[in-house]
Amino acid sequence: MGFDFNRGVTAESEHPFTLNLDKNDVRLTTKYIENAPFSSIFSTIHETGHGIYEQQVGDDLQGTTLATGGSMGLHESQSRFYENMIGRSMSFWKGIYDKNIDVFPVLKEINIDELYREINRVEPSFIRTEADELTYSLHIMIRYEIEKGIINGEIEIDDLPEVWNKKMEEYLGVVPETDRDGVLQDVHWACGLIGYFPSYALGNVYAAQLYNTMKKDMDVNSHLENGKLDRIKGWLRDRIHIYGKLRETAELIQEITGEELEPKYYIEYLKEKYSKIYDLD
Question: Would residue 47 show up in a list of annotated catalytic residues for this protein?
Fold first, then answer.
C-alpha cells in the first residue's frame, strides 16, 4: 500500500487505531479475526491510509502543532479512500491476486469475479468496522443520533443499550445479542471522542470527490493492476498530506477538485459500483 516500515510499525489491538509521535514514528494497530480474514485486511488497509497521511506531512512542519492531518474528516477521507476506493476495487485485487493465493491457498477455489463480489457483499452487520460501503453510513447515523440525544438530555446513559438496539433494528434490521457487539463495540465514547463519528461520513464524501478528480489526472485502475500505488500515494502527498494542518480542509477540497464539498460524487460512486455488482443497470 505504501506504508514505510522504516518509519513505522504495526501491532495487534482489540480495536484498530493509528497514532504517531512524528512522521518518522507512526504506529498502526489492527485486529485479527481467524475466520474472517477480510475484516482484518480492510481494517489494516483503513489504518494504513491514516498512517501514510502522517508519514507524508511536510518536513518543515515537524515539531509543530501543524504536523498532522488537516481535520479528522480529511484524515478519515484518506483511510476510507484506501480501504474502499482502492482496497475494495477490482483493479487492486487483480494486481495482488496471485500473491494472495500464496498466503490464502483456498482462493484457488474461486475466481477473481467471485472474490470481488464477496468483498463487496452488501449485508447488514452488527459491527461498524466490518460494514459494507452501502450500510456503513447507517452505522454513523445511529451513533450521531444517540450522541445528539445524550447532549440534549433526551437519552440517559443507563438507557443506551436499549436505545442502541432499537436504532439498529430500525436502520439495519438486526439486533445485537450482546453489548460487546452493540453499544460497547467502539472505543470513541470511552475516550471522550463525542461527536467524532460524523467524521467518517464526511470522509466518505471527501474521498469520493477526491477520487473523481484523481481519475482525471491518471489511470488509477492501470496503476492498481500493475502495483504502482506509489503514483497514487504521490498524488495525495503533493495535494493533501504535505500541508498537514497548514491548510483548511474546505480550502484544499476547493483547490484540488474545483468545487466545494459535493456529496453527489459519493452517491454516483456507490450507484455505479453496486449497480454493476448486482446487475441493476
Answer: yes
CB 241 within 8 A of CB 50: no
In whole angstroms, give the CA distance from residue 125 to residue 181: 10
Residue position matching grid coordinates 483511510 = 79
Q: Convert the pLDDT of each residue in 68-115 to its tens digit.
A: 999 999 999 999 999 999 999 999 999 988 888 888 888 888 889 999
Cβ–Cβ < 8 Å for 235, 256: no
Largest CA distance in the chain: 55
Q: In what order do the strands lie in the sheet with 18-22?
A: 8-12, 25-30, 18-22
Pairing mode, if any, of strands 8-12 and 25-30? parallel
| pTM of the predicted model as reported, rounded to 2 decimal places | 0.91
- State the cell numbers at 280: 441493476
Domains in the chain: boundaries = 8-122+199-262
Annotated catalytic residue within 12, 47, 145, 255? 47
Whether residue 281 is predicted with pLDDT greater than 80 in this model: the reply is: no
Q: Which of 194, 70, 84, 78 is nearest to 137 (CA)?
A: 84
Beta bridge partners of 28: 10, 18
**Residue type at position 272:** E
Residue pLDDT, tens place only, 249-262? 999 999 999 999 99
Other beta carbons within 10 angstroms of residue 58's beta carbon come to 15
